[in-house]
Every structure is written in C-alpha cells, then in structure tokens.
Description:
The chain has 952 residues and is of the alpha/beta class. It folds into six domains: 43-210, no CATH class; 278-444, no CATH class; 466-533, no CATH class; 568-743, no CATH class; 753-815 and 823-854; 861-951, no CATH class. The chain is built from 28 helices and 27 strands. It has a five-stranded mixed β-sheet with strand order 21-20-19-22-23, covered by helices on one side. A hairpin with a 2-residue loop joins strand 15 and strand 16. Residues 587-596 have low confidence and may be disordered.
Amino acid sequence: xxxxxxIRPDIDDGIDRKVLAQxxxxxxxxxxxxxxxxxxxxSTRQQLVLKLLPLLLHVNxxxxxGYVCASTPAGLSGFEPDDEVLAEVQRLTRSFVYKPRRGQxxxxxxxxxxxxxxxTVAQAEQSDMDLWLCHAPTLSARELQDLRKKCDQLESWAxxxxxxxxxxxxxxxxxxxxxxxxxxxxDDCGTTxxxxxxxxxxxxxxxxxxxxxxxWLVPVYEEPRYHDYCRTLLSKRFVxxxxxxDLGHLAYIPPxxxxxxxxxxxxxxxxxxxxxxxxxxxxxxxxxxxxxVECLSLRFKQAxxxxxxxxxxxxxxxxxxxxxxEYLGARGDRERLELIRRCLYLKVxxxxxxxxxxxRTKSWQRLLLERLTGEWxxxxxxxxxxxxxxxxxxxxxxxERRVLVNELTYSYRFLSQFxxxxxxxxxxxxxxxxxxxxRLYAAFERKAxxxxxINPGIAPDLAEDTLTLVRHPSPESPEEHQWALFNGxxxxxxxxxxxxxxxxxxxxxxxxxxxRNGVIDASTRLSLHPGNxxxxxxxxxxxxxxxxxxxPLPLPSVPEAALxxxxxxxxxLLLVNVGVDPLPQHSQMNVHMTSGRTDALGYSGVxxxxxxxxxxxxxxSWNELQVSRYxxxxxxxxxxxxxxxxxxxxxxxxxxxxxCFCRNRATAIAERVExxxxxxxATYAEGRQARYLVQIRQHYHVLQLTPGQVxxxxxxxxxxxxxxxxxxxxxxxxLHLDRHALxxxxxxxxxxxxxxxxxxLFYRLHxxxxxxxxxxxxxxxxxxxxxxxxxxxxxxxxxxQRFLQxxxxxxxxxxxxxxxxxxxxxxxxxxxxxxxxxxxAQRLERRPPPQAPVSHPFYDVQAILEPGDGRQPHVxxxxxxxxxxxxxxxxxxxxxxARHILAQRAGGERYPCYITDLDLSALLASQxxxxxxxxxYKSELEDALNAALQxx
Length: 952
C-alpha cells in the first residue's frame, strides 16, 4: 500500500500553501490513476471521446463536433490541450488551429468531471459516461440553452464513436445551496438526494479539466466549519478563487435523504436486486449512524490526508464493500455478508474461474477480485457456480431468490421503522413508502392462487430444452391427483425416481408458473404422461400458446397511479374443460343426430352441460398473475360471480379471452361462454342493481348484479324460478335473460319487458282448456302469475283492472299533495301473447285497458288484513259495504261471505268472485309495499272465497 506522511492543514496553527499543494497533488495522483484505469477498459474510439471532450467544450469551431454558434459558452478554466490532444483533433478537422484563451475574460465553464463506474473495479464494456459540466452562475438563459444544445450534439457525436455519454449541467453555486432542476446522472432518483449524491460525487468523480473542488482541501475534522474554513482559504489567498469550485460539504445529511435513497434503490431492486443491494445496505449503514454519519467520501478524504493512496483500496466499490463488511461483521450477519460478496462479484463480472483470453494478461480488476475471493475463502466450485449464472435454471434461481427477497423485505422494514423513529414521516414519504410497500407485495408476497415469480433479475433465461409433464395420484390420497414438472425427457418408469421442478394440484397452475417464469419457450420440447385425464398433446400445445398470447412477456412496468388504487383485473383468460372431454360416452355422430337444444349449457337430447371445469387466469393492475379453478355443477356461474365481484366500482373492465381445446364441441363451448360473459359484463357495466337469468340444463340460476357484491342463486326448476321472480324487491331490479334461457317459454317474451314505475299485465289464451294465463310485472319488476277460467276478455281483465285502480287510489291517497315527493304516477299497460296456446308464443301485442260498462255484474268485495297472533293475519271482508268479520264468524267467515254472494246472484250462479279492493296498511307498516304484495294476498283470498262458493 502506498503511504506517505499525514497532512494536517490546521486553520488555527496556520495553513501552509505548500501543504495545500501537496494535498491537491495527492487527489490528482489518485485521479490520474483512476483515469488511466478508465481508459484501459475503453475501446480506441471511446478513449478518443474521453480525450477530446475537454477540448471540444473549451473551444467553438464550426468544423468540430458540438458546434452551435459562435456565442455558445466555451472555455474550460485553466485548460490547455497537450500535443497529443491537438494531434487527435487535427485528424478530425485539419483546418483547425488552436488559439489560447488569452484576454477573453474568465472562462465560463468551471469544471468537467466523470461520474459512474468508469475507472472502478466494476467498469464494463457497456458502462456509460456520466459527466458533470460545472458552469458559471452568471450564464443567461439563452447561453444555457445554447450550451445544452452543444452538449446534446456532443452526446450524439459520442454515440457515433460507440460511447454512451450523458452531459449534465451543474451550477456549483445553486448546487451548494441544494437547488437543482435536473437529474445529474443516468442513475439519479431526483432532487431529494442532494447530500448522498454529493457524497457519491466526491468519492467517485474523475476530474477531466477545469477547477478542482475546494472540498479536497478541507480536513475532515473541519467539515462542520466548512464554510469558515473555505472563507479563510480564499480571503487569505491560500488558494485562488479561479482555481477551485465549491459544491458544498457533508457535515450533516438530513434523514429524509436516507428514506429517499432507500426507496429509490428498493424500487430498482424489485427488478434488478443485485445492482441495488450494495447501495441499499450502504443506506442502512448511514441511517443506523444518524445523526453522526461517517459517510464514505469523508473516509476517502481522510485516507488521502493520511497518505493511504492505494488505488485498489480506494476504489469506490471496494470502499463500499469494506464499509458493509465492517457493519455486517460487527453484527455477526454471515448470510447477508455472503450476499453482498456475491453482489459485488457479479457486478464486477470477471469470471475468475475461467482462464483469461489467450494472449491477454490478467486485468487489474481480475487480480483484485482474485485477492478478494481468496480473503473470502471461496473455492473453485463456488466461483464456477457464480460464473455460470447465465445458465442458472429453476433450482439455483429459486434458492437465490429467497435470500434476495429476504434482503429487500428487511430493507423495507428498516426503512419504514427509520422513517418513524427519525420523525421524518412527511405525507410525501408516507405515501411513497406505501406505494413502495405495494410494489414489494405485488412482486414477492405469496397468497393463494398467485403465481410466484422466481426470477427478479437473477438469471437471464430459465427456459429448459426438455421437460416432462406428469399427472399422477397424490401420495396422501390416491383418489386425488396432482401434476408434476420434471427436467429432461423421462419415461413412464423413470420419472418416479426424480424430484420434480414444481408440483401443482391443477395443470393450468403449473403451466402459468412455467410461462410467468419463462421455463417454457418456443423451443422447449415437452413429454406428456397425462394419467387418466383426457389431456392430449394438441390441447397442451394450445394451452401454452393461449397463455403466451394472453400474457406476453415481459410484462409492462406498473405505473404509480395503479398502485395508489386497489388492484383490479386487467387481463383475463378463461380455459374451459382443461384435460376433460365433456361427451366421453357420445360419439360425434350420435351427438350431431340428437335432437333438442344445441346450447352448450344444455346440449342436445342428452341435456348435458358441456362446461365442466373452468380455469381462470387473471393478470391484475399490479402485475400479479392469479389462477383459480372451478368445477362442479355451478362452476361456470361461480366463476363469473367471482370475476364480476373483482371488478372496480368505476366500471373499468378487463380484456377477456375464452379458450377451449377439448375433444368435443370445443369451439361451440368457448363461443357460448364468451357470449354469456360478454352479455353479463355489458349488463354489469350499467352500474345499477340488476338480475341476470341463466338456464343450465333444466335448472335456472340468477346472478344478482349489485355493484361490488354479485351473488349467485341456484333456483332449480320452473316453479322455483317463478317463486324467485315473485319475491319483493327493495328497488327496481331489471332482469336480463341469457339469450338461451327459457327457450320457447312465454316468459322469454315477458321478462325483458320490465320497466320501472309501470305495471304491465300480459295474458295468453289457452283455447283447448278454456282458460287464460295472466302474468304481471309490477313497478319493481316482481312477477305474479295466475291461471283463470276464460269466458271473454272483458270478464277476464275487468276485475283485475278495478283492483289495480283501487290500489293506485290508496297509494296516491297516502302521498302529500303539497310537496314534490309524489313521484311519477304508475302506468298500467296490457299486452296479449300471440298466437294462442298450444302454439308457441312468438310476439306481444299491446291492448287497451278494459272499459267496464256502467251496469257491471260483479260485486265490490273489499278486504282488510291486520296482524294476527300467529302467522295468519286477521281478515275482514266487505261485500257491497256489508261487513263480515272473523270476530263474528270465526272459521266460517268465507262460507258466510259465499252464501251472501250467491244470494245476490240471479239463479245462484257459481262463477268466480274477485277481490276488488285490499288494505294492507297495518300488515305492511314496517315494509315498503309493492303491487306484488297485494296480488299475492288477493290470490289467496280469492282462492278461499271461490272454494267456499263451490262448496256452499
């Protein structure tokens, strides 16, 4: 190690200009060594760029790269090109003649510095060049604009030479005050990390020309008095102002910067953890020392003051490693120490297990890495494993992922705790921490059905050449089966002797895992042992293709706006009947010859539901891939219910694809499910409470489409459906029919007619039986149905018309006349279904309401119902205003009324009697009354009265 005497330019004991010159010389000595190392790692043309940039910024010449105009700020303080540089620029433009800047005033460009990994052990062929161009604070807006254009043109010229250059303009005066408008490196997280960026600059920057930092000359112990010390240096002319620039000090780093730096590195570490772990842990070290932080730039400066000038030990990456080694060693944290060693080794990427390229000597980087790994006790096997990272597959990646995720998760917890303990939890920090927490959750948290992503930047390619897919009985329960994925091509007798790469209960769960992690690609060969499933190689190939098309990789990055909301489905793939044949006992010929429904949910004369299983794969807005399996009689509607419940309240809908590749009727099945789903989504998108009726085989199902709370009711046969449709509703609930539901039934014409604030009566004549069927939809879309004897339309409809009119009269009488709360009046509409039965009903025709003649033959029969002691209400009947009460007649009430009515009829005819008015105000006092309530009680009362009429 190079070591000279320690220099202590003490402000109290007097400062020696010679001592200051020695200090500057030491920094320049290290600078020159780093610059030489940087050039060694560059191509000839890249070296040319680095060599010429100071001159190209120093002069304006129309024939040189970067020329904008003659007035563009040019001139780098104290810079004079040497003969080698002038010879190189002459090769670019032979007519160029260099003229020194004498008598042109102070140079407006104060310094040029190279940042980043160049000149470090981690320099690579693809390393870019981040350069800070420090300029005078007096430049006008126009001058800055021209200077920016010149820098842009120089960047473009450098690109033609194979160099990726980024020039950043820095006003040292504003920067020292903590103000800057732009990013200052290609790896910069923004303006919230002023001091940590300055720390990185002071310990990594390579000076290329111009003034040198005055910070070099301030002893570490004087850092708290930095401004006073610098003022003394300048005022007493120990250094000249035109020789130095001031970017500020590092006596104190605000705790908010550690939070900002940690969040930025965690954000990057989710996709590229190796690149972030070193900086994350350094942030942890700094934060753990707060408020007395000994940052690495101060250690670097102290080493220079003490004469410890070994380039290897002062290498920016080695300095970071030594500090982390010291921190973790003191804590006895062996696993994390091994992780940062791997991160450093992989960052340097010199593969020391392999011999150097023939004819080339070992680079200084390789020699340094060999020395380090020797210190660590790494053997040839460990080195070989790390050097083959590009060939790592599932097993190695899975083991490494565990360590990396543990580290990232620990860093997040440390960061959150530090924010609370340091009382730096501003609203911005809290918000950013919460967003970051969601990013980590989405990337790494395990939960049921979620496909685990195992390769966050660990290995470049996990694709296997050959794989074997096996379905076999579960060892715990032979009645259950599972799928297993093996490396290589294994026969039936071979696979039981090998450990699988992955197991899963269902095939799609396994295939989705393979796709998300790139284990299967276009060149992978798959051997299939399907067991007792119906899975074929054709279906397997199409399933994999469907996953690749529905969820192309790589997935797009998740914007912050998406993380501020709860996750929502963005892409959905439904796979029907995976590995299942829905018609195993019916040949295609028999199926095609069978008469009946061709709907896949109630197929043909065999009345089969051909949708037996569904596998739902959902990619949500947080890039989480989740798999759900549905089977059994209600699989389809359970799947659709869960999908609708997962949709956001703002109505945004995912892209949905439905695929089916089973042996029989695959296309028809997929089209039927997609059609049903499309109609359901369209109905749900209306954003109101609704019901959706689906018929599967002979059974009826209703999905209650309440936004955010979709439920599925299995109704069974037609009577159960009618009971459901006749139930009271709290609000108007439109009923939507699946296009295949109630095929051929009258209800298929009636149910879609529902309208709010409207009572609709539909009647159909049955000429062969001499009766008619009445169906009513009330104002809340509840259904009432009744079959009555038919003599003529007048006698059929008039009693109900009179009842409904009295009902509306009672309703209106309860409303205030002096307010606007009455609402629209209920409209009563009449329709006839045609043609008459037994022919199939094909249309509805509007009919006018019946007009009863003045001399109407029917009695007025009014009923009043009141709560009883048990389940039955008390009934009082009025016939032409004569009272018949249970108090008087008890159980003989209906017989007494029947005898009275017959006595009023000429010849004692026993035609039906109808309730013409009904009061339920006492019975429904705590409920919202609707028409279907009245009709239900009306029917019960009429049945009792007419039965008494027939037996009287």
